[in-house]
Prior knowledge:
Blueprint: H1 2-17, H2 26-33, H3 41-54, H4 57-68, H5 70-78, H6 82-102
Amino acid sequence: xxxxxxxxxxxxxxxxxxxxxxxxxxxxxxxxxxxxxxxxxxxxxxxxxxxxxxxxxxxxxxxxxxxxxxxxxxxxxxxxxxxxxxxxxxxxxxxxxxxxxxxx
Length: 104
């Protein structure tokens, strides 16, 4: 637990250390294209920054695909493979960090 908190704190610090100009990544583009009411440039850019710190590029592409097919996330979460479990752990960390860093 202590290691997780240290990693979480380091990721949060890194998010704010990154310059405010962010290249549009896969997650940012998917977020902006989504029909969610809360999607806006500032929020999507913040989430992309957190994704850049906590997720590998292939993980970001997979997460971006959840916007088009939310059921895909549920199928992956229910999977019993070590690979999918490892991804889901990274994805959960990303979600926690995005909530901490990008919500007011």
